[in-house]
Amino acid sequence: MANSDERQPATGDRLVSFVLPVYDEEGSLEELHAQISRVMQGLDLSYEMVFVDDGSRDRSFEILSALHARDRRVRVVRLRRNFGKAAAYSAGFEHARGDVVVTMDTDLQDDPAEIPLFLQKIDEGYDLVIGWKHEGKGAPGKRIPSKIFNRVVHLFTGIPLHDFNCPFKAYRREVLAEIQLYGDLHRYIPVLASARGFSLAEVKIRNLPRRAGHSKFGVERYLRGMLDLLTISFITRFAKRPMHLLGAGGFLSCAIGLGTVAFFVVAHALYKVGVLLDPDWNIHERPALSLGILLVLVGVQFLSLGLLGELLIARYGSGANDRGYSVRQILDD
């Protein structure tokens, strides 16, 4: 947390942007717009809503177009197809103009009345504020996998959060300028931000029952999340130094392989000079010798890959130019 004399300007002096990914949520968009507007007008803050239509197949875009027509604070980014939530976030972040950005789901399970809790933490000096849905998490079939997932992420990353995947978050603009999302890495925004040195805070919120539509996610998202955890661990620890990971594996493999080969070479030499008197000794019939040679070759491959990774980073850096989405249409002023 920043010291009081180092805090940035209060939220009221800045524009607050809401980035709201939409995928087949026609039944909740009008009510969500009304609730956010009511809360922000009560706080007397400048704000905008950036809805990202991620390839909706229902009337979502039609409803968003009508909202934009009557409220110029509503902006709409329409993607050509369903690219996924991370791409929708990236598109929204790119087009948001606020110094503070708030993300929420558009299914009304996040309560806009709790927006002041997030803005208060931002004003206290935190860079990223994450919601913790400590009540109303639903049936055990959803609650238990969620707890296991968050516990595993905590053990892997060391970040003491209870709900990494909560979509209700508030960010300072500079956080979004330094993280890149693709695939399903939106679940690990707190991990990416923490790796860059940004301060995190957590606020307790409710998880409201869904009023319309249906959930787009199943248990399989936790499996994808665990695979992405391996990716995020590599990105945050070794993206700038791949030799530290690949080189360690290469040295270990080479050491075991060379030790095995050396053992058999010495044993064969002792057999030749008569020190080793085993009549069944035959170095060519020892599978472990082949394993040792294989380990040496694998170790050399790991070291070579590590060197190539270092050369690529030195030449091109670790960024990527592909945004991961294609915009069909933008409704703006």
Quick structural summary:
By secondary structure, the chain is an alpha/beta fold. The protein is built from ten helices and eight strands.
Describe this structure in words.
This protein has an eight-stranded mixed β-sheet, sandwiched between helices. Helix 5 runs parallel beside helix 8 and helix 9 packs antiparallel against helix 10. With 333 residues, it is of the alpha/beta class. It is built from ten helices and eight strands. The N terminus is likely disordered. Helix 1 links the parallel strand 1 and strand 2.
Mean pLDDT: 84
Which consecutive residue ranges, at least 5 long each, have pLDDT under 50?
Answer: 1-10
Biggest sheet features: 8 strands, mixed
Measured by DSSP, the beta-strand proportion falls in 15-25%
Q: Going across the biggest sheet, name each strand in turn.
A: 7-5-6-4-1-2-3-8
- The count of strands amounts to 8
Q: In whole angstroms, how far apart are the ends?
A: 37 Å
Coarse structural class? alpha/beta
Report the total helices.
10
Q: Helix share of residues?
A: 40-55%
Write down the overall geometry. elongated
Helix and strand element order:
EHEHEHEHEHEHHEHHHE
Radius of gyration: 27 Å
Quaternary state reads single chain
